[in-house]
Design goal:
CATH superfamily of chain A: Ureohydrolase domain
Number of domains of chain A: 1
Distance between the termini of chain A: 25 Å
Number of strands of chain A: 10
Number of helices of chain A: 9
Shape of chain A: globular
CATH class of chain A: Alpha Beta
CATH topology of chain A: Arginase, Chain A
Strand order of the largest sheet of chain A: 3-1-4-10-9-5-6-8
Oligomer: homohexamer
Helix content of chain A: 25-40%
Bound molecules: manganese (II) ion
C-alpha cells in the first residue's frame, strides 16, 4: 500500500525504531546537546529536527546508485540520554552508549548535537578499533587546549582525542578550515601532529574529487571515522549553526567528500552542529538529512546498481 | 532515571507509540491532510509539528489537578494513512480507521489536519453512539453546502453531518463565529437546525465559564463530541492557521471551554487547522499541544487531586 | 461561476480597479510612504501587503450584518504616486489627489503609509468640508512640533492640522495613547486644544462601546474623519509596525471603536503604519484588512440586514 | 513623470493587465495550484508572490542587452480560474485557457503553481504545434507512472505527455536531476524514451553554455517548450519550494540555460513550484521573477542592442 | 542637538556606559547565560537584544508621569563576565559582582539570562539587607529540588533561596503560575513555606491592581526584590522564551504588577528568560525593555509629575 | 581572564569605543541611513546589526595570517549623527565628520547605511588626497543622473563624484554589475568616463585573483578607496539588502576582491546596503562583519605572520 510522506512518527528516514543496536549493520543515533557551545546554542534540537525533515528522503541514491536498505539492516535507535546540566557526565553517557552500539558490530551514524560529542564517541571507537583515521570536515580545527578555562567543549575534541591516543595522526585530514582565529597560525598544532590540513582556500572553485583520491590513499585500509561539522559548509547552505564562517564549502563539495569515502573502512560517522533555532530556511536540517544519507550510502558492503 | 526533554523520538506527549488502539482508554491520533482547504494550506503538517512541540508537556494539570496518566491508559497510535490525491478516499480511510479505534472502546483525541476530517470521524462516532451532541469551537460555521462546486471540504463538514443524521441538533453549540461572510446571515442555517450559535461578540471581555454551565445543561448526559478549530482563537494566539479572523477568542477562553466540558460524556475530540508553515512563532503548535492535553484531562473517569 | 480566492491580481478586497474615483461612493486608495518615519521604516509597503492579504475577505460582515457592496459602489483606485525622495512634495501630491477624489463625492479609505499622510489628506478634506471632527486611534499623540528639526513627519501631523485650522478641536478624540514619552506630560498640548484624550489605561479590561457612545455625542452630526494608527493595537496583534508600544488596545477594541462610528458622518478614514518587513506573522496586514473592511461597513448609507 | 516602484497594483513586471491574450505577442499568466503536490504545499500562492516581487524589475536586460518591450507586446493576463478541489477539472480549465491563449498567436509565460500544470499546458501546445521539443530543468524527472495511486500530479506530467504523444522525444532534455530516488535507476525510463538526461553531477563547477550549444543542436528549428522547476536550483538559491534537493544548479546556471535558448523557436515557457510559505528569505520569488524575465528576453523576434 | 534614535552604540536605554556602579542610584546590568536551561536555550543573548531594542525608549513614563532620569543617576554597567562552561562558577561570579554593585548603594536592574541567576543575586542582596520580600512573577514556581539530578538551574532558584534563608517567606508572592506540571500539586511546597501563590486562573479577565494592593500590604516596609520571568506573560506577548505556557498574563497585567510596586522598598529587580532566537516577532525584547523601564520608574525616590 | 563572547556592549569587533579618531590608525564608523533608498528601506539599522553580529570575530585572519591589532590602533568611533528627515543635511554631516576623521590620519572603515553615503565620504577623502582610485563592488553602477527627479540618492553617488572631480577615472573599476536595467546599455556612461566595468558574467565560475592582479596594476601606487555594496554578492549570501539581483558574486569572490587589494594605498573603505529587516537568516550581517574584517586586514602597514 502507498504511504504518504506526510504521515507517521518522525524517525530518521522513516526507519523502524528499536531500543538497541542488536541485529543492525548501521544505526542512526542522536546526541542532543549544545552545552559544549560557547556562542550560539540550539544544537540540542538537531536530532529532532533532522528526524522531522528526513521525511523528504527516498530509498535509493540517484547519484551513486547505492541501495542502502538492500545492503544493510538499518534502524533509528533513538537518542543518548544526555545530562543537560553536566557536560562531563554527558560525555560518559555517550561513551558508554557507543561502547554497546559498537559491541554489537553496528556502525553508528550520529546526529548531533555540538562537536563536543565526537570525543567520547571516538573514545568508544578507539577502544574497539585502536587509533583510527579521521576525516574531519569543519570550518574550525576544534583543537583548542582550553576554552574559557575548560578542557571539554566543542572547540577542543580533537586535542583531547590526540592526547588520549585515539587517532592515527598520520591518517587525519581536516578540510574546510577558515575564518578569523585566536592566533596567527591557528592550524599549526594540527600540522605538528601530522594532520593534513586543507584550508578552505585550497577548495575554492573546484571539485574535491581529486582531494578525496589523495585522502583515500592517506587513509589506506585501516579503520576510519568521519566527523562532519555542518559549519564546514558555507552559511548560504547551512545558516542554522552556531558559528557561521563565510566563504565555505558548497554542499556539492560536502557530497563529494562523503562520496569520496567509498571504499574506506568506515567505522562511524557523525554530522554535528545543526542548530534549528537559527535554521530559518529549514535547509540546514534538509542538508544534514541528505549528508547523513550519503554517509549511509558509502558504508562498507554497500551494493551499487 | 532522569530523561531530558530534548531526547527521544517525538510521539505526542512522549507517550508510547502503538499501532492499534487495543487496550487503550484514550489515544492521540493524527490525520495529516489539508486537501480540504480552499485558501492557505499546510495543515497536513499539523500532527508532525504538534508531536514535536509536545515535548514541553509534563504529566499533571496544575490548573485542574487532573492526573491523566494515573487515570487512563493513553498512547500515540500514529496517523491515518491519508491519500493526499483523493479527499473522498481519505475520508473513507479516516472513517474506517476510527471505526476500529472506537470498536476497541478507546476515545480518540485527533490532531488535524483540516476541518474536513470531522465529518468522517463523526460518521464513525455516530455509527457507534448514534447522533451525538457537538461542541464546535471555530471562527467559521463550516456549514456551507458547496464550496467551489464541491460538497466535501473544510467549510462543509457539519452540513454533511446534519444531512447524514450524525448530530443531535438540539445538542449542538457553535462558539466563536465571526468575520466577513458569504451571506448576510451566514449563521442562519445553523440556527434553523436548532444549533445554539454563540457569536464571538457574546464572548468578548469575559469568562466563558457561565456559558459552559449552560452548554453542559444543553448537552445533558448523552454522548458528546468536541471539535476545536484552532482559528477560533484570535490570530495573536494562533497565527499558524489557514483562515485567520481577528477579534477572536483568547487562549484563556479556549481553556475554559475545554475545562467546562468536565463531567460530559465525551466520546471524542479533535483539534484541527494548525498550519505549521504559517506558524512563525511556533506558538500555534504549542497552543494546540496544551489544548489537546486539556481535552485529555476532562475525559470521563479522570482522577483529580 | 466559482472563483477561487487564490486567483487574480491583488486589488483591495478583490474589488475592480479604476484610475479615478468617478462614480464611486467609496474608494480604497494607497499612500505608500515611510519617509516620515524616524525609527523603523517599511510602511511604504503597507498598501501592497494589505492588498495581497485582502484575499481573505468575503462580502458581508457577520458581526454587524452590513452589506457594503449592496449599499455602495466601491473600487480600488490604486496608489498616490509618491515621491520617495521629497516628503513635502509627496504631501503636495497626496493633497492634490485627495482633492480630486473628494470632488467626485467619493469617501476615501486610505491604506498607509506612515502617519504623515493624514496631514495632507485632512488639508483636502477640510478644504471641502471645513474643520472636521477627528477620531484618532493611536499609541502616540502625533502632535510634536518638530522632530529632529523637521516640521513634517509621522509624529507631527495633528499639530500641523490644528495650526492650519483643519480640525474642529472640540470634536477631536485620541484613543489609546501610552508608552514612554519625550516630556512629563506629553498629552498636555492635546488637552490644551480641547481634544479629548483617552489614555490606554482607561481602556484596559473593558469594552469600548460605552466610550464610543460618548464619542458619538461628542462628534454630533458634523463631518468626521477617522485616523487609525495600527500601533494603537497591542504588538501581540500588530507586530508589523514602526514604533510598537506594549499594553495596547486589543483588536476587539479596535473593532468596537470602528463599529462605534456607525451613524456618524464619516467623510474619510485611514489605516496607517503597517510595516510589512516587521510583520513576521503576517497578521498585522490581515488585521489592517479587516479594520478597513469594518470602516467600509460603517460608512453613511450602509444597509444592514 | 516618474513613478516610484513602491506604488501600484502588483501585476507581473508592472505590465498592463488585460483579460485575454488578444493582440499580445507574449503574456504572463498564473496557474495558482498545489493540489498536485504530495509533500509540502504552498505553490498555489506562487503567482501572487511573483507578481508582488516583480516590482524590482526594470525594462532592459543588462546581461544580454535585450529590449523586450521594444520588441514584443506583452501583458499580464491574470490567472487560470483553477478548481482547488478537483485537480482533473483544473487540468481541463488550464487546457482550455491555453488553447485560447495560443489561438491568438500569443506565447504564454506561465507562473506556477506546481508542476502538474505542464501536462495540460503541453496538451494545448501540442494541439497547435504538434509534438514539441522540451527543455525540462528540474531536480526530479517527474516521469512517475503513479504516485499514491494517482496518475495526475506533480511527479507524473512528462510520463503523461509522452503517453499522449505531446513530445518529440528525441528533442527532450532534462537538466539537473538528482537526489534520493524511488528506484535504483530512476532516470531509466527517461532515457528509454530517447530523452537526454543531464544529471546534476555533470553540471557541477562549470558553465552550462557548452551544454546549451548541444541542446540548441538537439532542438533544431522545431517548436520548443521550456519547463523550469525552481527546485532545479540549489535550495540556497530557492528555499521556497516543495521538495528541495541539495547540491543543485546555481542561479547562474539557471540563467545560462535560459539565455542558451536564444534562437530557438520557443512556443511557451513555465516557471513552477515556487512555494511562498517556505520562502523565508523572499528570494525564491525574486529569483523566479528574474528567470521569467530572462525567458521573455529569449523569445523569438527579440531585439538586442 | 537632535540625536536620531537609529544612531549610537546600543547601551540599555541609550544610557551612558560605565564599568562600575560607583555614583549610581540604579544600574542596568546583564547576565547573559542560559546554561541553567533544560529545554530551549537562547537566553544568553537576552541582554544584547534588550539593549538593541531599547532604542525605542524615551525618557518619561506617560502612564505614571515618572521622571526617572530627573530622579536618579542611572547607567548601563555592562554584563557579568559569565563562565558559559561552569554554571556554579558563573553563580559565584554573579554573586561577587552584585556584592560590589550593592556595596556602592546602587539598585541593580538585571537583564537576564535564565532564571538561575536570581539565586546568586539574592545571595548578594540578602547579605546586605537580610531576608527580603520577593515578588516573583512567572508561569512556573521554580522551586524544584533537583532537575535532572542537578541542584542549580532555572527551575530551582527559589528552593535554594529558601534553604539559604535569603527570603522572608511570609513576604513572598508568586504570580501567574500555570501549565502542566511534574506533580499533582506542584505549588504545595511554595504554600508550605508561607508563600502566597496566585495561580493564573485568579488573574484571568481582570485588573491586578487590587491584587497589588494586597501585595503591598504583604510586603510592608521591608526590603523587597522583584523577579519577573517573561514567561509569566502569555506567549502571544512573549513568544521568545524557553518554556512558553498558554493562557498567561497579559502585558497590561505585567505593567500593573510593576506599577503596583510603587512605594515599596525595592532593592533590586530582574527580568529574565528572554530568548532572542525564539523571538521571531522581536516583541519579546521590546516588552522586556518596557517592563525594565517600568521597574526603573517605581524605584524609591522617584519623582512623578 | 577569559571573556565570553556573549557578554559586553556591542561595539564593532568588541573594540574599544572612543568619540573621536584621535590616535587611531583605523576606525570603524557607522552611517545609519536609508533615506537615499527608492525601494526597500532598512539599511539605517545596518551599523547596529553589524556591531551585534561582530561578536563572532576573533583577532587574527587564518586565511592571510594578518595580525590587525598588532599592526594598527583601531577603535569603534560610533555613528555619524544623521538627519533622518533631510538627506542633503545628512550628506553635509557625513562630509564634516569624515573631514575630522581623515584630518587625524585615521583610515575610516564605514558601516552603512545605503550607498548615498559614499558621495560625501569621497568629498572628504578627495579634499585630503585629491582624486582617488575607486574599487566599486556592486550589482548596480550607481551612476544614474537623477532618480525620481532627485540628484542625491543611492543610485547616483558615483555620477556626483565624477562631476565633482573626486575620482581619478582611469583608476576606477566597477565589479559585479548585472540585472535588469533602465536602459539598453546602462553601463555606457561608466565606460565613457574611463571606468573599467567588469560585468558579473565575466566573474562567473572562476577565481577573481587574476582580475585583482590587473586591478592592482590599474590602481598603481596612488590613493585608493574601496566601496563594497553587499548586493554585489548573490542574494543567497546576502538576502538582507534593498535591491537583490540574482546570479551575483559569491562570498568567496568578495573575499578575493578584498584580499586582492593588499599592497594598495587604501585610504578608506565602506560596506553598504545591509538591510537587517530583510536579513532573515542573519547571515548578511555576519558576511558584512567578515568583509569589514578582511578590509581591515589589507590596510597599509599590516603585519602578516
Ligand atoms: Mn566543529
Ligand atoms: Mn565548526
Ligand atoms: Mn475555522
Ligand atoms: Mn473549521
Ligand atoms: Mn501615529
Ligand atoms: Mn503611533
Ligand atoms: Mn518538477
Ligand atoms: Mn522538482
Ligand atoms: Mn522562571
Ligand atoms: Mn518560567
Ligand atoms: Mn550601490
Ligand atoms: Mn547595489
Amino acid at each position: 500500500e502507498y504511504i504518504a510522506r506526510v504521515t507517521g512518527i518522525p524517525t530518521m528516514a522513516k526507519l523502524p525504531y528499536q531500543d538497541t543496536a542488536d541485529g543492525l549493520d548501521a544505526a542512526f543515533i542522536g546526541v542532543p546537546i549544545d552545552t559544549g557551545t560557547a556562542y550560539r546554542p540550539g544544537a540540542r534540537f538537531g536530532p529532532r529536527q533532522i528526524r522531522m525533515e528526513s521525511a523528504v528522503l527516498r530509498s535509493y541514491n540517484s547519484g551513486t546508485r547505492a541501495a542502502p536498505y538492500e545492503s544493510l539492516v538499518v534502524a533509528d535507535i533513538g537518542d543518548v540520554n544526555v545530562n543537560v546540566y553536566d557536560l562531563k557526565d554527558t560525555c560518559r553517557r555517550i561513551r558508554e552508549t557507543y561502547r554497546k552500539v559498537l559491541a554489537s558490530g553496528c556502525i553508528p551514524l550520529t546526529m548531533g548535537g555540538d562537536h563536543t560529542i565526537s570525543y567520547p564517541i571516538l573514545q568508544a571507537v578507539a577502544e574497539k578499533y585502536g587509533p583510527v583515521g579521521l576525516i574531519h570536515v569543519d570550518a574550525h580545527p576544534d583543537t583548542s587546549d582550553v576554552v574559557l578555562g575548560e578542557k571539554i567543549g566543542n572547540a577542543t575534541p580533537f586535542r583531547r582525542c590526540v592526547e588520549d591516543g585515539l587517532l592515527d595522526c598520520k591518517r587525519v585530514v581536516q578540510i574546510g578550515l577558515r575564518g578569523s582565529a585566536y592566533s596567527a597560525d591557528s592550524f599549526e598544532w594540527s600540522r605538528a601532529q601530522g594532520f593534513r590540513v586543507v584550508q578552505v582556500e585550497e577548495c575554492w572553485f573546484k571539485s574535491l574529487a581529486p582531494l578525496m583520491d589523495e585522502v583515500r590513499s592517506q587513509m589506506g585500509s585501516g579503520p576510519v571515522y568521519m566527523s562532519f561539522d555542518i559549519d564546514a559548509l558555507d552559511p548560504s547552505f547551512a545558516p542554522g549553526t552556531g558559528v557561521p564562517e563565510i566563504a565555505g564549502l558548497t554542499s556539492i563539495q560536502g557530497v563529494e567528500i562523503i562520496r569520496g569515502c567509498r571504499g574506506l573502512s568506515l567505522v562511524g560517522c557523525d554530522l554535528v552542529e545543526v542548530s534549528p533555532p537559527y535554521d530559518t530556511t529549514g535547509n540546514t536540517a534538509v542538508t544534514a538529512v541528505n549528508l547523513l544519507f550519503e554517509m549511509l550510502c558509502v558504508l562498507p558492503n554497500m551494493k551499487y546498481y
